[in-house]
Structures are given as structure tokens and as C-alpha cells.
Design a protein that fits this description.
Helix content is about 30%, strand content about 25%. The chain is of the alpha/beta class.
Amino acid sequence: MSKADPNPAAGTARDSDPGPAAVASAYQRFEPRAYLRNNYAPPRGDLSRPDGVGPWKLRCLAQTFATGEVSGHSLIDIGSGPTIYQLLSACAHFEDITLTDFLEVNRQELGLWLREEPGAFDWSTYSRHVCLIEGKGESWQEKELQLRARVKRVLHIDVHQPQPLGAGSPAPLPADALVSTFCLEAVSPDLASFQRALDHITTLLRPGGHLLLIGALEESWYLAGEARLVVVPVGKEEVMEALVRSGYEVRDLRTYVMPACLQTGVDDVKGIFFAWAQKKVAV
């Protein structure tokens, strides 16, 4: 799933906190292609199942963007991992999109797709599905062309740093919206670290801007090739509380229970959450 989709890598600090440093070290063994096979090839990548995890995530995103409320000039995808599906509905609503990840191997994987190079992961099944559910008569080729045109940069990020993109980032800041899929819980050693990471990325978002957050529920580990990566287990209530503490109004919070047929031994995820939150404007 940018994990169960943890989005593999978004950020891990090399500061005095041994927790994030240990996470950063573990992610050096992360294998993007193994991660993609585990989560975006069948059975989890079977989009023909209406009760599947892939269609559920794509519906959540498409329905939220269809409201017209989440739009603007600039969007930053926090901890993209090696995936782009999370932006297929977003790209019609933002002219300037920034992809980010902690790992160079994931940024390289994204580059293969953006440049349409041989060997790039094939996302056309996802693009077709998004076009189908959006119902605008757009072809999947047009959808992918628009996304490639609107991604302006792929940057390093470390969500455990107070300035996640570093000083002097070329990304337009503050952004009008953030998207993050399977990132924060996948790179945080504990709930306190998860909260700090959320606080850090919130500094990249303008007041009144929107955050769309997808993540794993009650997951403690996942596999990406030789890497067995630790995840901080979070529940729906903990996600809600973290968003409120970081200064958001939660507009929507949905959950999905992972069916037994999709529990394939590559992780111990129990479900998925989708949150739409709006950063409060200071009075």
C-alpha cells in the first residue's frame, strides 16, 4: 500500500535521538521493487475487487478532490516512496507538485517513471482505475501525461528534522496542500516521534491548507526485500488526536479493515486509515 504502503522512507533523522537514527539505518536495506511487488502487484494490486485495498484508497482520494475544496497552486507529497498512485486525482487540482523521499533509491525509482524510462514500474492499471471512478472521460494516457507535467521536482526529505526539506528548499513554501501515504508511522519509532514528525511537516503547509493522510492501522512491521522494517502501531483515535494536537480540524476520517485474503505475510497490518484535515488559521 506508500506502505502497506508505508511510504518507504520518508524521513529519518540523524540527530541525537537514537530512535530515528536507528530507523534511518534500517531503511538503507529497503528494496523499492520488492516493496512494489508486495503491495502493488496482485493480490493487493488487484483493482478489480471492489472490496480491495487499492480501490478503497483511490476512492478516498478521488472523492475528496472531487469536492473542489482541496486545490491551489502547490502540493507536496511527503515521503512518496517509489509510488505515484496517490497523486493521480491530485494532479488536476495543482500546477506545481513536489515529490519527496528520504531514500535515494526511491527518488531514482520515481525518476524512472517520470522520464518514462525502460524498466519503470507500470502504473497504468491505477491510472485507468482513477479515470474510471472520476468519470470525466479522460484517458489513462492523458492522466499520466498531466501528472508528469505537473511534478516539478523530486527532493530529499527528513520528517524528523524541524525543517524537513532543509534550508532554502526549491519547493514553493508554504504549500497549499500536503499528501502523505504510509510514511509517518513507518519511519517513527514511537508515538511521540510520530507526533513530532507530523508537527514538522505541518510547518510546510499554509494556514487553511489541507493534508490528506493515509496510513497503516495497528501495524508493527513490514518487509521490503531483505529489510524487515519496524512500524509504530497507531489506531484511529491516536491519528485523530495527533492531527488535533498539530493544529488541524479533521474533516473526514475513514478506516478499512484488511481482509484475510490480503494478509499475505509481508506485514502484520490490520487496516488502513484515510484522513482529510485542514490546518487551522490562527486567530
